[in-house]
């Protein structure tokens, strides 16, 4: 876009036209690799992590759920051991965020994403999830705690209209809040079985790819980074069809998109990642595929060793694929690193920025005007 030989600058409007205001842009930079790809680790799971820990405790003769403290320590251990290979870490506020910041289990130079939705939201009579905020949490609180991005999981099935309309309204509300507080918004719609279906049913598997692509077409416009499921199922359809689906997903998404892991086994996730990176994907935000065997290890020391060796290596190996073959977030918009380096904001831009926010120079005070020397 920009011609370096003429020193022509691009206007900041190229960023603003994509919703990338200063706070959002800074958050995107913070969670990215230097080349604009994203390798992110998900540790925000609560229900599934508690279930895994409970099974491990039962295997040792303790028929109980893990305590709050035990869940906190597990999340901190996983973050501490595996974050070195990631560009950013997603964590929940209830168990993880404050402790991870205080202990630097998520180091200060790594991007911090915080989940905003309630874990295990209520369902309607057809089994459609009805998303809602985590009690006691808000976009504003996530911004105030110093996070770089807000993540919202919003199950979405266009053919289940009750939950679809409810969750769309929820998405719009979170998007508005993120704009107001100028924080990056990462949206994660996922398909779900309903009306008596199971995830293994043919009816669900047959429509999963279509749901994933159509959800991106309808919802990606509301966010800054789109987190998508693999559009199909390995072994349920040919690799050629899955590749076509991935290209269709990239075309449907109006924003850079990253691939979630959905708890599949790591070898399957690695294959999905390799396929996705060849089809326009910008990176990953993977969780259980990296670390789900953690609670199967015998004792705290063995768990930490697993996370520091096998877990970290998995993230590092995926990171290599992402950096080598992923599409940088700015390339999604047709920009280069040189284009970004040429962008300049006009004098007085901060007067137009965040007009709802309090600023110096109100009634009865001196108003500084653009161009005034002071």
From TrEMBL:
SUPFAM superfamilies: Aldolase. It comes from Singulisphaera acidiphila (strain ATCC BAA-1392 / DSM 18658 / VKM B-2454 / MOB10). One of its GO terms (molecular function) is 6-deoxy-6-sulfofructose-1-phosphate aldolase activity. PANTHER family: SULFOFRUCTOSEPHOSPHATE ALDOLASE (PTHR39340:SF1). Belongs to the aldolase LacD family. This is Tagatose-1,6-bisphosphate aldolase. GO terms for biological process: 6-sulfoquinovose(1-) catabolic process. InterPro entries: Aldolase_TIM, DeoC/FbaB/LacD_aldolase, LacD_aldolase. Keywords: Lyase.
């Amino acid at each position: 876009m920009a011609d370096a030989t003429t020193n022509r600058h691009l206007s900041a409007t190229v960023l603003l036209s994509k919703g990338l205001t200063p706070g959002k842009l800074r958050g995107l930079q913070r969670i990215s690799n230097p080349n604009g790809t994203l390798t992110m680790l998900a540790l925000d799971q609560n229900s599934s992590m508690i279930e895994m820990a409970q099974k491990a405790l039962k295997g040792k003769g303790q028929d109980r759920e893990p305590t709050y403290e035990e869940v906190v320590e597990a999340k901190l251990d996983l973050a501490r051991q595996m974050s070195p290979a990631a560009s950013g870490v997603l964590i929940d506020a209830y168990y993880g965020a404050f402790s991870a910041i205080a202990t630097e289990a998520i180091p200060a130079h790594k991007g911090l994403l915080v989940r905003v939705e309630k874990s295990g939201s209520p369902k309607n009579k057809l089994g459609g999830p009805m998303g809602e905020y985590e009690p006691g949490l808000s976009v504003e609180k996530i911004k105030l705690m110093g996070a770089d991005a807000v993540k919202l999981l919003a199950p979405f099935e266009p053919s289940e209209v009750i939950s679809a309309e409810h969750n769309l309204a929820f998405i719009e509300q979170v998007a508005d809040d993120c704009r107001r507080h100028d924080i990056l918004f990462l949206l994660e719609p996922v398909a779900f079985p309903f009306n008596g279906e199971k995830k293994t049913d043919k009816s669900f598997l047959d429509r999963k790819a279509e749901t994933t692509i159509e959800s991106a077409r309808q919802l990606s416009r509301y966010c800054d980074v789109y987190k998508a499921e693999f559009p199909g199922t390995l072994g349920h359809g040919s690799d050629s069809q899955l590749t076509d689906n991935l290209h269709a997903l990239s075309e449907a998404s109006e924003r850079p998109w990253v691939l979630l892991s959905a708890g599949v086994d790591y070898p399957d996730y690695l294959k999905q990642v390799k396929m996705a990176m060849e089809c326009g994907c910008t990176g990953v935000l993977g969780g259980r595929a990296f670390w789900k065997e953690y609670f199967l290890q015998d004792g705290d020391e063995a768990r930490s060793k697993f996370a520091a060796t096998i877990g970290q290596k998995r993230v590092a190996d995926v990171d290599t694929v992402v950096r080598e073959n992923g599409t940088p977030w700015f390339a999604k918009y047709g920009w280069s690193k040189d284009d970004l380096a040429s962008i300049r904001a006009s004098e007085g831009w901060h007067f137009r920025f965040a007009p709802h926010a309090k600023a110096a120079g109100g009634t009865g005070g001196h108003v500084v005007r653009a161009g005034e020397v002071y």
